[in-house]
């Protein structure tokens, strides 16, 4: 029932030749995802995210900056602080140790959220269509 937010395989940062310069969880002057303090079974204190809530900003060595969004509604359970000191794991192990955050959707919404997700096969088909159209 939890959602682990990672970079998609097709994300520009995971393409060859890109180097991650920095990762910043400071979203605005008074909002930092690093100040998210969660406690207890009911996850008190967790920041609530909407689908369009930014999680972090990632800068690459070529000057590009990417904002990573939550994409789901729920409580921010954890951000991966390990990628701050070692940004390379974001590229080396994007689906395991290089995750960005963990989000817990509301129980009532979790079923509708997961039903709207693509399977790995569907995702690959979308990428193929994108490649063929460009």
From TrEMBL:
Question: What does the UniProt keyword field contain?
Answer: Cell projection, Nucleus
Which SUPFAM superfamilies does the UniProt record give? Single hybrid motif (SSF51230)
Q: Where would you say this protein principally sits, based on its record?
A: other
Q: Where in the cell is it found?
A: Cell projection, Dendrite; Cell projection, Growth cone; Cell projection, Lamellipodium; Nucleus speckle
Q: Which terms under GO biological process does the entry name?
A: dendrite morphogenesis; regulation of actin filament polymerization; regulation of filopodium assembly
Q: Which GO terms describe its cellular component?
A: dendrite; filopodium tip; growth cone; lamellipodium; nuclear speck
Respond yes or no to whether keyword Nucleus is given for this record.
Answer: yes
> Do you know which InterPro entries this protein is assigned to?
Abitram, GCV_H/Fam206, Single_hybrid_motif
| Keyword match Nucleus | yes
Instruction: Select a single GO molecular function from the record's annotations and give it.
Output: actin filament binding
Q: Which family does the record claim for this protein? A: Belongs to the ABITRAM family.
> Could you identify this protein by its name?
Protein Abitram
